[in-house]
């Protein structure tokens, strides 16, 4: 497994951001594809929730901060 040097948009490609999101969310022990676990926990659909990061519009930190403060719901 290759080590990611930075998760910032300026340092990653779209493909790398997809891998970063999938790896980070796989900590529950399953792959995200076809999983609705986060939606079941009230976090919203993963592909929608992290899409702004994947598309290079918002940094991960911003998305996570917005979710923590209740500004974003899936």
Q: Ends: how far apart?
A: 30 Å
Number of strands: 0
**Backbone structural class:** mainly alpha
Q: What portion of the residues fall into strands of 2 or more residues?
A: under 5%
Shape: globular
Mean pLDDT score, rounded?
Answer: 77
Number of helices: 5
The H/E string reads: HHHHH
Report Rg: 12 Å
State the helical fraction.
40-55%
What does the main sheet amount to? Answer: none
Uncertain stretches of 5 or more adjacent residues? none
Descriptive labels:
74 residues, mainly alpha, 5 helices
3D structure, described in words:
- The protein has a domain of 44 residues.
- Helices cover 45% and strands 0% of the residues.
- The chain contains five helices and no strands.
- It is globular.
- The model has no long low-confidence stretch (mean pLDDT 77).
Topology record:
Layout (H helix, E strand, L loop, with lengths): L13 H12 L11 H4 L5 H4 L1 H4 L5 H9 L6
Give the structure's gist in a few sentences:
The chain is mainly alpha-helical and 74 residues long. It has helices at 14-25, 37-40, 46-49, 51-54, 60-68.
